[in-house]
Amino acid sequence: MDAIVLKNVWKVYKIGGTETYALKDVNLRIKEGEMVGILGPSGSGKSTLVHIIGCMDRPTKGEVYLFGKNILNLKDKELAELRKKYIGFVFQMFYLFPNMTALENVEIPMILAGIPKSIRTEKAMKLLEEVKLLEKAKNLPSQLSGGEQQRIAIARALANDPKIILADEPTGNLDVKSSSIVIELFKKLNREYGKTIVIVTHDIKIAENVDRIIVIKKGSIVANEVSIDEALEILKK
């Protein structure tokens, strides 16, 4: 089954009298259970693509489907429910609440979903155990390394058991060792739990570990399935 389908998607921003084309006639199909890397230079439309897949933005024209549901037919409230049900987000900046513990940060999506405290606390503890940070449950973000903060962010993304994980430069602020731990965690989520994972990245190590590499340039997908060497050659041009 296809988890994500984009058909002839355009995204145009109008600033004053000027139109900027962030996405141009994008066609994309990602199967359920795939782990996909999206590579492209700065300003290529990668983040815009993630925002549209993640139901945080709507295309100017075209069709977007998540598990067969056309998001363009949904009202804002329905779109928010779809996002909450299907998608977990991981960003380059960890976006943890500084005055909340690791455990409390992981609980946030479950609070928004109205899950009772006893249930959400138990689940959050299990998620912290999954990312091997159970012993840091009571720590504030300032007491954690960058890699640990990103693993907390991943645990938070898993809180409502989403089918899709969207990660935008998840290792961008991490050292090599922490990046490797995060990559292995994504692989585990994909291989053992069947999560569909879409990673926007400049990190060659991530690109070497995905099922498929997609290349985007100037708002258009220029390659749908290439090797890392082919992707790097395309990006040089």
Question: Summary?
Answer:
The chain has 237 residues and is of the alpha/beta class. The chain is 37% helix and 29% strand.
If you had to describe this structure to a student in words, what would you say it looks like?
By secondary structure, this protein is of the alpha/beta class. The protein has a single domain, classed as P-loop containing nucleotide triphosphate hydrolases (Rossmann fold). The protein has eight helices and ten strands. The strands form two sheets. It has a six-stranded mixed β-sheet, sandwiched between helices. Strand 7, helix 6 and strand 8 form a beta-alpha-beta unit. It is globular, with a radius of gyration of 18 Å. It starts with a strand and ends with a helix.
What is the CATH-assigned architecture? 3-Layer(aba) Sandwich
- Provide the number of structural domains: 1
Q: What is the N-to-C order of secondary-structure elements (H for helix, E for strand)?
A: EEEHEEHEHHHEHEHEEH
CATH topology: Rossmann fold
Characterize the largest beta sheet: strand count, sense, and whether it forms a barrel: 6 strands, mixed
Total strand count, please?
A: 10
CATH class (first level) name: Alpha Beta
Structural class: alpha/beta
Map the helices and strands:
Elements: E1 2-15, E2 18-31, E3 35-39, H1 46-53, E4 61-66, E5 69-70, H2 76-86, E6 87-91, H3 102-112, H4 117-130, H5 146-157, E7 164-168, H6 176-193, E8 196-200, H7 204-207, E9 212-217, E10 220-226, H8 228-236
Parallel strand pairs: 3-8, 3-9, 6-7, 7-8
Antiparallel strand pairs: 1-2, 1-4, 4-5, 9-10
